Amino acid sequence: MLKAEHICRSYGAHKAVDDVTISIEDGLITVVIGESGSGKSTLVRILSYIERPDSGKVILNDREIVRSMVRAQRRTVQLVMQDAASSLDPHQSAQQILDEPLKLLMKMDKDTRRKRITELSDMVQFPRDKLCNKVSEMSGGQQKRLCIARALATEPQFIIFDESFSGLDVTLRSQVLNMLKDLQSRLKTGFLIITHDLDTAMFMADRIYVMRNGKIVERLDKPKSLLDFKSDYAKELVRAAEYKRQALQNRKEE
In terms of Cα–Cα distance, which of 49, 54, 55, 53 is closest to 68? Predict the structure, then answer.
């Protein structure tokens, strides 16, 4: 299990994360939802060891993560960022990007790496004939699949997706989310999905945390309906999502 216990993080007078406690369980999909500025991305940076909290603990498998342990835990918790292009070297091929963690972190020999790269590309439905293409030659969807394949390369216990599906068109987002659900079911990897999109949260989540102004305002286990939300803020998000769906429907009918 990956846990944040009473995490606080401030930037000057602004409390980005204020006494947050959440649990990401093995083999389940946990979602944190909230509007921009709610503190979600700061929480991600703390859970993925990019920065340290002012107070509180990050605990992995019953051990508090301290600075001396961070490098050793990089294999265990992987991060897929929002902007795929900015997290990939545009001059490298897909094969080179996938080969690096297999060589440096997994210590695989060349033949084993070659076989594993093919397996990873198939897992995320990345076309084999594009493995030699440079990142700059790929579509946005291919770049996103490559980022997911790279995260899977180290056989992590947890993968964090930080607004990783925003910017994708509706069809492509549906394809990626269905692929991830199937992967998670087969691999039993724990997923933490950070999103502002309520539909994504409801489709993917075993557990939802609602975050506002740096605080967790609601936790919902095994969500089945939008009516399950109880907090006033979550109900606001539900109304906004329903308004957006109605506006899109009206636009289609015009």
Answer: 49
How far is it, in rounded angstroms, from Cα 167 to Cα 31? 18
- State how far the Cα of 211 lies from the Cα of 31, in Å rounded to an integer: 10
CA distance 124 to 117: 11
How are the residues of the chain apportioned to helix, strand and coil, as percentages rounded to the nearest 5? Answer: 45, 25, 30
pLDDT of residue 254: 62
What's the mean pLDDT in 167-180?
89
Length of the chain equals 254
Paired residues of 2 in beta bridges:
24, 60
- H or E segment and range at residue 211: strand 207-212
Strand order of the sheet with strand 2-11?
14-24, 2-11, 55-60, 63-64
Q: Per the structure block, which two tokens stand in for 74? A: 């990089």
Instruction: State the Cα–Cα distance between residues 45 and 17, nearest whole angstrom.
Output: 11
Residue 207: closest CA among 32, 6, 27: 32
**pLDDT computed for residue 34 by the predictor:** 93
pTM equals 0.92
Q: Give the per-residue pLDDT at 122.
A: 96
What is the predicted pLDDT for the residue at 68? Answer: 63
* Residue 222, φ and ψ in degrees, nearest 5: 50, 60
Contacts of 70 (CB under 8 A, 6+ apart): 49
Least Cα distance to 3 among 153, 184, 196, 207 occurs for: 207
CB 128 within 8 A of CB 87: no
Count Cβ atoms below 10 Å from residue 57 Cβ, excluding itself: 14
**Among 105, 86, 195, 94, residue whose Cα is nearest residue 142:** 94
